[in-house]
Write a structure and sequence with these properties.
With 439 residues, the protein is α/β, with parallel strands linked by helices. It is built from 12 helices and 19 strands. The chain has helices spanning 2-27, 110-117, 120-136, 153-162, 205-217, 247-259, 271-279, 293-302, 323-345, 366-373, 378-384, 387-392, and strands spanning 34-42, 51-59, 62-68, 79-90, 92-97, 139-144, 170-173, 178-179, 200-201, 222-226, 228-233, 239-243, 263-268, 284-287, 305-307, 348-349, 410-413, 429-432, 435-438. Helix 7 links the parallel strand 13 and strand 14 (284-287). Helix 5 runs parallel beside helix 6. Bound molecules: zinc ion.
Amino acid sequence: MRTLRSLLLLCVAVLCVAVAIAVAQEKAPSSATVTVIRAGTLIDGKSDSPRRDQVIVIRGNRIESVGDASGAKIPAGAAVIDLSHSTVLPGLIDSHTHIFLQGEDPAQGGYDVNILKYPLAYRAARATVSVRRALEEGFTTLRDLETEGAGYGDVGIKMAINEGYIPGPRLFVATRAISTTGGYPLEGYAPELVMPKGVQIVDGPVEARKAAREQLDHGADWIKVYMTHRSWLGKNGELVSQPTLTVEELKAIVDETHGWGKKVACHAYGGLGLHRALDGGCDSIEHGLELDDSAIQQMLKQGTWYCPTLAVYYTDWAPAGTPDGERDRKRASDHAESFKKAMKAGVKIVFGTDIGGMPWTTPIAEEFSRLTELGMSPMDAIKSATTRAADLLEMQGEIGELAPGAYADVIAVSGDPLQNIKILENVQFVMKDGKIFKQ
Ligand SMILES: [Zn+2]
């Protein structure tokens, strides 16, 4: 009886494996599929200068070789994609997105209607549109930094992409995010009402660690923490930001998350909250509007990443002359100075947009213009969205570069992005994992 049952279980297990393999084969091209891309100009994400007339050989979903067209041997039976009049680059990486936000218009209820009125299925349906749009714009990987009240919806969207049901980028997800009492919307309602929040609220290191454990348990690839919340102008016109978690609370989260081999991203504008983020051991500072010299020194020493998300701070300014309007302008000008100082000092800067905070109709690649306007070279800006972002995600050699062994995430534009970075807003060819999504 016992043997029979074991045998039956074994059969079921074998069947499961067979089914799993069949599904996997549907997702990515099989290793027998060979595709060759002829690239007029190739920016590989690693080198400092482009190369002309290159051939990329792709077997299945990985790059097998990259070399000069003159000496290249095109395997028999290979499908050839002619991009000899284009510039070919690695698939781009946006390290700060919100697929569950849609740049909510305050006139239509703004952020709050998401949580108060929209069924989760409606928000998930719109998230599938966000991810498809990102992929079609050439962003083959996103670090999505929290669902804004949509719980673990990002884990579900990631599963649907990975299993081939919907088109979308590789996702690194943060799930619910963490802040403190008084540290996140919904707010401004009658105190008698217990309102839902856009993040998981914790108070004290025990609750903080528990929230991290829950989120990691349910599939978070990163933990997102809000270290500052409201901001306003102080008596002397300086930007002031309300700090949220204490160092003790943050340390509990960082310790727990690092134990799982994962990292912590901290939203931090400046002042006390930013310094607590660094003292608590955050791995990446998000936004960092006001980086003073000691913060920059500490970031260098600790190897902290900086994801500035510039473009979003140039949208939706309140009218000039109003307190909010003046604050919005001060945010942008302080941010520009912080960015320049950090870049000069050699802080590791990655491309991130906070899209979702802006409508998904905004070109994601617009951030490249902001980075270069503030003095970053076009090649360095491209690296911030390719190899440097791959480092942040601990995916070195796998994504963000066109080199043997990497996943075949390949995009192409017509023209030279090193001469005109705005060309990256018009991606004409997209391949992810060896599959063509746009041509
Ligand atoms: Zn954000």
